[in-house]
Design brief:
InterPro entries: ClpP/crotonase-like_dom_sf, ECH/Chromodomain_protein, Enoyl-CoA_hydra/iso
Distance between the termini: 29 Å
Family: Belongs to the enoyl-CoA hydratase/isomerase family.
Strand order of the largest sheet: 1-2-3-4-6-9
Mean pLDDT: 90
Strand content: 5-15%
Order of helices and strands: EEHEHEEHEEHHEHEHHHH
Protein name: Enoyl-CoA hydratase/carnithine racemase
Largest sheet: 6 strands, mixed
Helix content: 40-55%
Number of domains: 2
CATH class of the largest domain: Alpha Beta
Structural class: alpha/beta
Pfam family, one: ECH_1
Oligomer: single chain
Number of helices: 10
Radius of gyration: 19 Å
GO molecular function: catalytic activity
């Protein structure tokens, strides 16, 4: 599929997906949602891709839903939001099979490759929701986060009432949702929304350096399994998580990547993992 609302590039085994409506601060549209999902599945299916970088073009990550869309929904007195997003697609091989992670805006955990959100500038509303489904986030010093929903007469949408408290705790999540106040990068780091803050000019390079080290040195099979364990584990008891781990450990011990993991260490050379 030809992309108009996003950019897609693969280099150094990193797929970079860029929300590309810079004149609108990458405000979210139905087209952008569909193209992003297609690109995520494309990266998932590409054996030449080990990690995914998600960012925004221009001076912002995503300013939330396009106001023209919100205006149209208001005029139609609450037309079904489901009409504004594409139908769900199949689950990528190796990803989580939980139905929780198959919805139009919750599917990132089902992508069996690490997703890093590089937050450049404003990250608001639906843009904030999307960023929280990334596995981790780096922020530019100029990044600003806001839930925004309460200031639009809306609610905590698309699962942010589930993701945000798990990252920052219930009282902090309530603060950010109820007040819709703006959170700058340094506070986002303290709260645990982002894992690193870097100068604006270094954001993409820092994100790529981090992902390239991951792509070059760790087993893609291990990454896929651990990602599934982490996200599925939030629905499991400790006993269930341990049973899953024992099963996955037995499978990993029989894998080619395990053999390579031992061999490259003993032979003191760079690993050549295949994901098998």
């Amino acid at each position: 599929m030809a992309y108009e609302a996003i950019l897609y590039d693969v280099r150094d085994r990193i797929a970079t997906i860029t929300l590309n409506r810079p004149d609108r601060l990458n405000a979210w549209t139905r087209q952008m949602a569909g193209e992003l999902r297609d690109a995520m599945h494309k990266a998932s299916a590409d054996d030449g891709v080990r990690a995914i970088l998600l960012t925004g073009a221009g001076r912002g990550f995503c300013a939330g839903a396009d106001m023209n869309l919100l205006s149209g929904l208001s005029a139609s007195k609450g037309a079904s939001h489901a009409d504004e997003v594409p139908a769900p697609r199949g689950v990528p091989a190796g990803g989580s099979q939980r139905p929780d992670f198959q919805l139009p805006n919750t599917y990132f955990p089902a992508i069996p490759k690490p997703i890093l959100g590089a937050i450049n500038g404003p990250c608001a509303g639906l843009g904030f929701v999307v960023s929280l489904f990334c596995d981790f986030r780096f922020a530019a010093e100029s990044a600003v986060f806001t839930t925004a929903f309460a200031q639009r007469g809306l609610i905590a949408e698309h699962g942010i009432s589930w993701t945000l408290p798990r990252l920052v705790g219930l009282p902090n999540a309530a603060d950010l949702l109820y007040s819709a106040r703006k959170v700058r990068a340094d506070e986002a780091l303290r709260l645990g929304i982002v894992q690193r803050v870097v100068p604006d000019a270094r954001l993409i390079d820092a994100a790529r350096d981090y992902l390239k080290a991951m792509a070059d040195t760790v087993s893609p099979r291990s990454l896929a399994v651990m990602k599934r364990q982490i996200w599925d584990g939030m629905f499991q008891s400790l006993a269930e998580a341990n049973v899953t781990a024992d099963h996955e450990m037995a499978l990993s011990l029989a894998s080619d990547d395990f053999k390579e993991g031992v061999a490259h260490f003993l032979e003191k050379r760079a690993p050549q993992f295949t994901g098998r």
